[in-house]
Amino acid sequence: MLSQLSSTTDKSVFLPIKKKVLLVEDEVLFAKAVVKRLQKAGFECEHAESLQDARLLVKQFEPDMALLDMRLPDGNGLDLLADFVAKNINTIVMTAFGDVTDAVNAIKMGAIDYLKKPIDLEELLLIIQKNEKTTDLQASLDYSRQRDSVVNDSVQLIGESAAMQSVRQQITRIAQLSALSDAVQPTVLITGETGTGKDVVARYLHASCANHDKPFVHVDCASLPAELIESELFGHEKGAFTNAVASRPGLIESAEDGTLFLDEIGELPLGLQAKLLNVLERRMVRRLGSTKERPVQARIIAATNRDLYQMSSEGRFRSDLYYRLNVITMQMPPLRDRGQDVLLLANYFRQLTEKRYALPHHEFSTLALMAIQKYHWPGNVREMRHQISRAVLMCTQPMISEHDLGLPQMAAASASVSMQGETQVTLDDAEKAMLLNALEQSRHNVSKAARLLGITRMTMRYRMDKHGISV
């Protein structure tokens, strides 16, 4: 139901390439040992013996990282460090002198770490590999931040069941509250099984409110790396920790006056729940390493597939945070409890796949529709989207059969049982029953009933005449 692409995606995040390291060192024997060890570990490595040689190599080699000695034949390494930092080259400085003044100045200028000679090669390698991992995680999070900063305008809520009507009514009421006052909007908690569309509801809620043109920041609490989660949520100042080479806002702050969506809030570590509670209570956030607090204007939406009340009673989730989140609760129903929405969604995903891949129009056979209705859909809407898309992509005939759906045998068995009971129900009887059911659901609106069944109005009329059904 939600499609979202970013034209500014940095594809380099996903390309596994050999990292380049530039060593600036005038001790030739030590330099040869370092180059040999790094090449053995899988890095590309070049060596420069002076500032002048290093400046030339930077242009030709384009390193990702630099190992920079402080004392060189033609000057101090600090003279080169500023250029490295400006080019986003992660730099580790090395000094053979006991005085740490140069090292302290280097860290202030943007170096990520420093080492005192003599240097153990294995220790140096571990530091480089640790920095490489942190940089990759940071790049991945930057991509996610950029990708999720804007909500696609085409986000839709599909469904006419009573449960979905209730969800729409709640969204409408929340949007009205947003329009009536400039006050901080109440927190919304969306609950429901995995795959029921909690993230879609959050985006739809954002799109329906007055701040729809503001950022929508999606934070997946379950997938944030443990070593970066606090920095990513709350931000940090330059020098707050080893790799903090520049100040940056956290995801909470990045939401500005838009919407912050905390997905899978039940996975947030206990240690950070107190800090999040403080943000929700005081509407202020403080970056790591800072004494300054910044106001939080964003609407907060949280979602979970877990029972937070039960978790709080077991000590696995803070009860005070649960009560603070549980101001307005929206329960997403499982797909199996949404009645005719199952057919609406199946046809929606069919049409979406046909449009996306420029495929001809398909229809579901009567047995396919029965299988869709009878299947339990344990993965809910997410499972249906993938199953229907696969069926449409692989089907070479105009009619999608129950076999094309690829549902587990239990679905086909259920459909078979429904037609082969004691009364020996025939295929015509089953088709007539489905037509009557669709007409009843649509309040005898032929066009709407046809849409429910995924057929044209003309086909619907033909089949009604065939079975002697009149409106």
Anisotropy-based shape:
elongated
- Name the beta content range: 5-15%
Return Rg in Å.
Answer: 30 Å
- Tell me roughly what share of residues is in helical segments: 40-55%
The CATH class assignment of the largest domain is: Alpha Beta
**Total of helices:** 20
Terminal-residue CA separation: 33 Å
How many E strands? 16
Low-confidence stretches: 1-16, 146-153, 410-423
Number of domains: 3
CATH topology of the largest domain, which one? Rossmann fold
The name of the CATH superfamily of the largest domain reads P-loop containing nucleotide triphosphate hydrolases
Class computed from helices, strands and strand pairing: alpha/beta
Structure write-up:
- The chain is α/β, with parallel strands linked by helices.
- The chain has 20 helices and 16 strands.
- It has helices spanning about 30-40, 50-60, 80-85, 100-110, 120-145, 160-180, 200-210, 230-235, 250-255, 270-280, 310-315, 320-325, 340-355, 365-375, 380-395, 400-405, 410-420, 425-440, 445-455, 455-465, and strands at about 20-25, 45-50, 65-70, 70, 75, 90-95, 115, 190, 215-220, 260-265, 285, 295, 300-305, 330, 365, 400.
- Strand 1 (about 20-25), helix 1 (about 30-40) and strand 2 form a beta-alpha-beta unit.
- Helix 10 packs across helix 12.
- Pfam families: AAA_lid_14, HTH_8, Response_reg, Sigma54_activat.
- Keywords: ATP-binding, Nucleotide-binding, Phosphoprotein, Transcription, Transcription regulation.
- This is Sigma-54-dependent Fis family transcriptional regulator.
